């Protein structure tokens, strides 16, 4: 039973670029698609798809996008009891323009996500007993800090996925359960670009000294993951796959990690399974549709 606290966006994705828009000439794209996005939505739906019970705390507006996002979350199997529909506010949006080289530029509207206040998190934590909280950075920073404190005061462990990459003070996460930054987030938080084991250890030590987290767990893309427990570090190499699209890999990783830990598995087994979930996702096209099921993760690990 996992509570995810985070953002809900309606994504608009322009792809198949036909001509670039330079010097006042507008770019031409071949396709426009809509997707359910926001890091809160993505992680909650990853937990649900991997077979866990996921409830989301978040905010949408009373516009059409808010209605469609609520419906989409329910269709994905996410419990939306704690999603607020706020009058007079727009639902968060992200607009992505994909380039032929697979990089993209994006523009975002924070919208209702900016109204996610600690009281909404508190109400959810008081309504039900959760085994774990997972949160990210696409909400007011004070809500991120308070979510940790509210969960801690109730004895609920917190996994903090500190994306999108940004430098924030970490002292208020003193004693948090797990911090899971990817490479860019690690660099934003520590100034260290992780290129090898020594770098992973250095960055982990810096993060650990600020938080005294039970575990620092670096997500290192095609290289795998690095786990640090305050004393020693251990490298978990990625599973070799043919990489197709890494969108959603981090969400699959964090969701599988959380689920395994909720089931009482030890941290090393959980990281290995998380690596498998991330690898499967990276071997497929797309974000949410590429997140594996638990059966797929098990089959992959037993190969
Ligand atoms: P994010 O999506 O947050 O940037 P990463 O790209 O680091 O996260 O990916 C998360 C996890 O997914 C990695 O730690 C790894 O376990 C797995 N993964 C990502 N890319 C690959 C890949 N090319 N091959 C194998 N595993 C991968």
Automatic annotation (TrEMBL):
<feature type="binding site">
    <location>
        <position position="281"/>
    </location>
    <ligand>
        <name>K(+)</name>
    </ligand>
</feature>
<keyword id="KW-0119">Carbohydrate metabolism</keyword>
<feature type="binding site">
    <location>
        <position position="182"/>
    </location>
    <ligand>
        <name>ATP</name>
    </ligand>
</feature>
<keyword id="KW-0963">Cytoplasm</keyword>
<keyword id="KW-0808">Transferase</keyword>
<keyword id="KW-0067">ATP-binding</keyword>
<feature type="domain" description="Carbohydrate kinase PfkB">
    <location>
        <begin position="1"/>
        <end position="293"/>
    </location>
</feature>
<feature type="binding site">
    <location>
        <position position="286"/>
    </location>
    <ligand>
        <name>K(+)</name>
    </ligand>
</feature>
<keyword id="KW-0479">Metal-binding</keyword>
<feature type="binding site">
    <location>
        <position position="275"/>
    </location>
    <ligand>
        <name>ATP</name>
    </ligand>
</feature>
<comment type="subunit">
    <text>Homodimer.</text>
</comment>
<feature type="binding site">
    <location>
        <begin position="38"/>
        <end position="42"/>
    </location>
    <ligand>
        <name>substrate</name>
    </ligand>
</feature>
<dbReference type="InterPro" id="IPR011611">
    <property type="entry name" value="PfkB_dom"/>
</dbReference>
<keyword id="KW-0547">Nucleotide-binding</keyword>
<dbReference type="InterPro" id="IPR002173">
    <property type="entry name" value="Carboh/pur_kinase_PfkB_CS"/>
</dbReference>
<feature type="binding site">
    <location>
        <begin position="219"/>
        <end position="224"/>
    </location>
    <ligand>
        <name>ATP</name>
    </ligand>
</feature>
<comment type="function">
    <text>Catalyzes the phosphorylation of ribose at O-5 in a reaction requiring ATP and magnesium. The resulting D-ribose-5-phosphate can then be used either for sythesis of nucleotides, histidine, and tryptophan, or as a component of the pentose phosphate pathway.</text>
</comment>
<feature type="active site" description="Proton acceptor">
    <location>
        <position position="251"/>
    </location>
</feature>
<keyword id="KW-0460">Magnesium</keyword>
<comment type="similarity">
    <text>Belongs to the carbohydrate kinase pfkB family.</text>
</comment>
<protein>
    <recommendedName>
        <fullName>Ribokinase</fullName>
        <ecNumber>2.7.1.15</ecNumber>
    </recommendedName>
</protein>
<dbReference type="InterPro" id="IPR002139">
    <property type="entry name" value="Ribo/fructo_kinase"/>
</dbReference>
<feature type="binding site">
    <location>
        <position position="245"/>
    </location>
    <ligand>
        <name>K(+)</name>
    </ligand>
</feature>
<feature type="binding site">
    <location>
        <begin position="250"/>
        <end position="251"/>
    </location>
    <ligand>
        <name>ATP</name>
    </ligand>
</feature>
<dbReference type="InterPro" id="IPR011877">
    <property type="entry name" value="Ribokinase"/>
</dbReference>
<comment type="similarity">
    <text>Belongs to the carbohydrate kinase PfkB family. Ribokinase subfamily.</text>
</comment>
<keyword id="KW-0630">Potassium</keyword>
<feature type="binding site">
    <location>
        <position position="251"/>
    </location>
    <ligand>
        <name>substrate</name>
    </ligand>
</feature>
<feature type="binding site">
    <location>
        <position position="247"/>
    </location>
    <ligand>
        <name>K(+)</name>
    </ligand>
</feature>
<dbReference type="Pfam" id="PF00294">
    <property type="entry name" value="PfkB"/>
</dbReference>
<keyword id="KW-0418">Kinase</keyword>
<feature type="binding site">
    <location>
        <begin position="9"/>
        <end position="11"/>
    </location>
    <ligand>
        <name>substrate</name>
    </ligand>
</feature>
<comment type="pathway">
    <text>Carbohydrate metabolism; D-ribose degradation; D-ribose 5-phosphate from beta-D-ribopyranose: step 2/2.</text>
</comment>
<dbReference type="InterPro" id="IPR029056">
    <property type="entry name" value="Ribokinase-like"/>
</dbReference>
<feature type="binding site">
    <location>
        <position position="284"/>
    </location>
    <ligand>
        <name>K(+)</name>
    </ligand>
</feature>
<feature type="binding site">
    <location>
        <position position="138"/>
    </location>
    <ligand>
        <name>substrate</name>
    </ligand>
</feature>
